Each structure stands twice: as structure tokens, then as C-alpha cells.
Amino acid sequence: MTPVLVRPNPADRQRYMVIFGHRRVKVAQELGLKVKAVVKSVDDITSVIAQGQENSARSNLSFIERAYFARNLLEAGMSKDVIRSALGVDEALLSKMLSVADVVAPGLMKTLGACKRIGRDKWLSLRQLLLNPAYADVALAYTGKAEFEALPQDDRFDALHAYLKRYKVRSTAKTPQKASSPQRWTASDSALALVMNAKPRKVAIELTSAEAKPFAEWLSTRMDRLYDEYRRTKNEN
Fold first, then answer.
1. Which one of 10, 129, 137, 175 counts the least CB within 10 Å of its CB?
2. pLDDT in tens, 190-199
3. For residue 4, what are the CA distances in angstroms to 15, 31, 35, 124?
4. Domain residue limits, the chain
């Protein structure tokens, strides 16, 4: 009833490339029927935009299908301006589509299917989980199980998303070292007390009692000499 749109194949003028109407052509081939077509000479960019607009006009095209279409166009050398025109989306939405398509591996996407009722926000949530390599490995292992493959395709996304939200990745962070006990010193006359807390690159010294302030002033005027003495002793050792 409605002709498909084709263009001459630039590599073979006896053949044609379908711009839109791919499904009608496929069904006709399977049935052994011919299809009516409109032939139009268009360049690659115009062809891509026409295909994208046809796909976008179909209400059953899911977010992930559009995302992979965008990524395939980008890998084919199309600019983001052309892709936005083809899909009828703004820069922010295209960026989100590409970010999801870059993280969700083709194998995982094939397992999950078109996910017709799963929108942008849930895909972005799954992407955030899969950015952790540990979760990506868990997702592949989980979706490879027989019980997962037995799920209806419409239920697979929610099952995986819920599983990853519950899953706790074991932390590989090192256990922090216990702080060393402070060192204490008290003068024989009890007029000065010292507490020293030492860390690898920081040492805190606290002076208390009656002589604390005058001793600190005395110490500060002799720091150069004391440090030089420390260096000489260290070199001798």
C-alpha cells in the first residue's frame, strides 16, 4: 500500500539501498513478493536522517534501541549534529543515550532484548551500576544462569537491575592501620610533660605543666642548631 524509499547503490548502479521500509522489504523477501519503491538519489547524511526519523516516528522503538542506533551512526562516522537530527533529540538526551550504549555491552543488551517498557532513567541507573567493573562481571555471570534465561524477556531488565541493587561488592580497600600509641615523657621535677603522637608523615607534640611555655620558647630559638646536630648524628650512623 505504501512504497518503500530506496536510493541507488553508489558501489553498484544496478542495485539499490533501502532508506526506510526495511521491515516491509524483509517480509516481502520471505514471502517471495515484490515491493513498490520510490527511487531517490540522496547522500549518506540525508539517508541517515530519513532512516532515523522513520524509526523515531514508530512509538514502539525503545530507549536502548535508539541508543544503539545513535552509537552505530557515530561509529559509522556521522557527526552528532546529524545523529540529533535523525533521532529528533537534543544534545543532553543524545549524550545520555551514548553513555548507556557505551557501558551496556552488546552481549548483555542482546540478552535483555529491546526492553520496550524500560525508559531512560532505569537505563541510566543500570549504567551507573555497570560502571563498576565488579558489577559488570556479576551482571554477566547472573544473566548467564539458566534460571535467568528462562525468564520472559519483558522481565529480564527488572530482574537484573534488582539483583545488582541488592548485591554487595566486597571492598578491596586496605584495612586502615591502627594508630600507634602516643609516647609520653615527664621531667624528673614534674615541671614539664610531653605527649607525642606520631604518624608516617606527621608528628604532633604537646607540652604541658608549668615549664611548657618557657621551654617551648627556648626550644624555638634553638631549632636550627638542634636540627643540624640531628643531621650530623644521622650521617654518622
1. 175
2. 888 888 888 8
3. 15, 16, 8, 35
4. 111-169, 183-236
Give the DSSP H or E segment for 128. Answer: helix 120-130
Please state, in angstroms and rounded to a whole number, the distance separating the CA atoms of residues 219 and 226. Answer: 9
Locate 161 and state its grid cell: 537491575
Other C-beta atoms within 10 Å of 47: how many? 19
Q: Strand locations in 78-232, DSSP E?
A: 183-186, 193-199, 202-208
Cα angle, residue 117 at apex, residues 112 and 121 outer, rounded to 5°: 85
Distance of CA 51 to the CA centre of its chain: 29
- Start-to-end CA distance of the chain, whole Å, equals 97
